[in-house]
Design a protein that fits this description.
This protein is an alpha/beta fold. The chain has 24 helices and 24 strands. The strands form seven sheets. The chain has a five-stranded antiparallel β-sheet with strand order 12-11-15-14-13.
Length: about 675
């Protein structure tokens, strides 16, 4: 076994010495014997023989010269600190004086120098010398002590114990090289060691990590990858091939026979001999299907060779399955089914049955309906009822994404396609949803440019990433939804008619809540659960008579409000009171005239008429008017000087202008 000699001036700080020995042993203990030597204990006859000498500092070098037969493999010990202690040090305010304390003044100087070498330059490190403690340190608030906190002056309260200093990474690398070790176990230990310390020589550590990763990639990824890979020079010489590519060599070879292009399968050799690049070509070799890529490698304007990759169709299917699983884990799946569409109305049940029939086809579907009617609920249910149910479902709200971003999200882009584009490019939703469904909500809001690109997807089942000239085949079903009248949009020229007719292969209309009133209380009860028992009869009547412009979404929000506060939202009542459209103005006018008629009869007897008496009389005549509505009606009549609103028991009285109004 090889030997590592750790050489110190003396053995005064034995705990620190043992700590350093343990660190060396943790990396190289299985490959070398580690022994400590102290210069002050070596006599003239003492000899130190080892494969590598690790010296605590350069001052030891001159003393060691007479005790060893060779000065090869000398390593000067460098120091570092643990990463977690750096976080505490960086919290100290900038330009603050910090006292560095160690068991000797010399070691304190070494520690301060180490901090500066590690790049900690925002603090003013002051080396503590107990012999000069004449008050010069009294105003210092912070101190750092490498495992010697008891030596810090007692008035300093902010003490950071950084522990024993760690061995620098460059020291560990020099030991490894001196021992001529090429062992994966050592490499892994060194990588773990790097992650625990702060390194001043980052280029060294990063280079080591990079070379290790590159070598690991070649050995593990390229050689053992599921894709067959061949690297061929421009002269046709086989430079590299991995394990999977061996399957394509027809000649039986062994360790004494060199693999060569001539040994390749005949069909594959012909493809390689052809000078043109090939992208995603399907080929059959010995009755198995592969996807082949052949790409030229250029150095400047000189072609120096090319690489060939072949992917087995079975492996591609497995990868697609894995990708689909990943998409599902990311939320790209349909969670709702037709069972989640609650209803008792026949019109809604008819819509569900039509949707089921449409789901069993592969046609594009256009779902039309007002906001809040449940268009995405239908889209997800259709996907889960179709043969694509185990594939991705990606929903996109076209109105919520800016035009430029929507195009890149749908179709993806290549590296450098536009300013701000990711260097890696991006796969769009259509590619990610391959074999699945893309749901385009608010389709009526997309720009003409995106409309043109979407038309190609529907016609040709092909897309092209932004910035690319390569056509990609996609197999996706498109379900679109809108709350606009797309036919009118096409007449106005804001929506392409050819795209509309492509989308409108199967149209599904979802009725608004006001057209299926029997569903209102049923759904409200579903949302309220046991709390529905608290809903009064008057509130139920108001719920049924309200027009619900926000449809089911508004109804659900209303239920949440009721469950929380025990009453209907005020705006619900206010909107109901104001729901007097053009077709209701005649009824409004009849109620006004009925009030005036009541007052004529009452005033003829010399009496006024109170608001409650008017309310009861209107109700007997079949006019449904709420108290707030009646107050507003009377106030309007008063402003128009048709009636006089008396105080207390005086009640309402008709004016002369009111009599003239009634006579019209």
């Amino acid at each position: 076994m090889k030997k590592i000699a750790l050489v110190y001036r003396n053995s005064e700080n034995i705990d620190a010495i043992n700590h350093l020995a343990d660190e060396v042993r943790s990396i190289f203990g299985n490959y070398a014997e580690i022994e400590n030597y102290y210069i002050n204990k070596l006599d003239d006859r003492s000899k130190v023989e080892a494969d590598v000498y690790v010296l605590v500092d350069r001052s030891v070098l001159a003393h060691l010269r007479t005790h060893t037969s060779t000065f090869k493999n000398i390593v000067i010990l460098t120091r570092s600190i643990r990463k977690e202690t750096l976080r505490e040090i960086m919290k100290i305010p900038e330009n603050e004086d910090v006292l560095i304390v160690n068991d000797t003044f010399e070691r304190a100087i070494e520690t301060a120098s180490m901090f500066y070498e590690l790049g900690i330059g925002h603090l003013n490190f002051v080396v503590y010398n107990p012999d000069e403690d004449d008050g010069r340190y009294d105003n210092i608030k912070y101190a750092i002590a490498p495992n010697e906190p008891q030596l810090v002056p007692e008035w300093i309260r902010n003490v950071i114990n950084v522990g024993y200093r760690k061995i620098g990474f460059d020291t560990m690398i020099q030991i490894k090289n001196a021992l001529k070790l090429k062992d994966e176990d050592v490499d892994i230990k060194l990588l773990k060691y790097i992650s625990t310390i702060i390194e001043p020589q980052r280029d060294l550590s990063e280079s080591y990590v990079g070379s290790f990763l590159r070598e690991s990639m070649l050995n593990e990824y390229l050689f053992d990858t599921q894709s067959a890979l061949l690297l061929v020079s421009a002269e046709g010489q086989l430079v590299y091939f991995n394990r999977k590519a061996k399957d394509f060599f027809t000649a039986k070879t062994d360790n004494t026979v060199k693999y060569d292009i001539s040994c390749l399968n005949h069909d594959l050799r012909q493809i390689i001999d052809d000078g043109e690049d090939i992208i995603k070509r399907a080929i059959i070799i010995e009755e198995r299907k592969y996807i082949l890529d052949k790409v030229s490698i250029w150095m400047g304007n000189v072609n120096i060779g090319y690489y060939v990759t072949l992917q087995d169709e079975v492996d591609i299917k497995d990868m697609e399955t894995s990708l689909n699983k990943n998409l599902i884990e990311r939320g790209f799946f349909a969670r709702y089914t037709f069972n989640d569409i609650k209803r008792i109305s026949s019109v809604m049940s008819d819509s569900v049955e039509l949707a089921k029939q449409a789901a069993s086809t592969e046609y594009t579907i256009l779902i039309c309906g007002e906001s809040g009617t449940g268009k995405e609920l239908f889209a997800q249910s259709i996907h889960n009822y179709s043969i694509r149910k185990d594939k991705p479902f990606i929903g996109v709200n076209c109105a919520a994404i800016p035009e430029s971003l929507l195009e890149s999200e749908l179709f993806g882009y290549v590296e450098g396609a536009f300013t701000g584009a990711s260097k890696k490019g991006k796969i769009g939703y259509f590619e990610q949803a391959n074999h699945g469904t893309v749901f385009l909500d608010e389709i009526g809001d997309i720009s003409p440019k995106v409309q043109a690109r979407l038309l190609r997807v529907l016609q040709e089942k092909q897309i092209m990433r932004i910035g690319s000239d390569r056509i990609i085949d996609v197999d996706v079903r498109i379900i679109a939804a809108t709350n606009k009248n797309l036919m009118k949009e096409t007449e106005n020229g804001t929506f392409r008619s050819d795209l509309y007719y492509r989308l409108n292969a199967l149209q599904l209309k979802i009725p608004p809540l006001r057209e299926r009133k029997e569903d209102i209380l049923f759904l409200f009860k579903e949302f309220m659960k046991d709390d529905y028992l608290k809903v009064s009869k008057a509130d139920r009547e108001l719920l049924e008579s309200y027009k619900w412009p926000g449809n089911v979404r508004e109804l659900e929000n209303c239920a949440l409000y009721y469950k929380t506060l025990g009453r209907l939202p005020e705006q619900l009542k206010e909107r109901k009171e104001h729901e007097i459209g053009e077709d209701e103005r005649a009824l409004y006018e009849r109620i006004r005239k009925e009030i005036i008629r009541l007052l004529i009869n009452k005033n003829a007897l010399g009496h006024g008429m109170g608001r409650m008496a008017i309310y009861q009389s209107l109700k007997r005549e079949g006019y449904e008017v709420s108290d707030p509505q009646l107050r507003r009606l009377l106030a309007d009549l008063g402003k128009e000087e048709l009636i006089i609103i008396g105080k207390g028991r005086q009640g309402m009285k008709l004016t002369e202008k009111g009599r003239e109004y009634a006579a019209k």
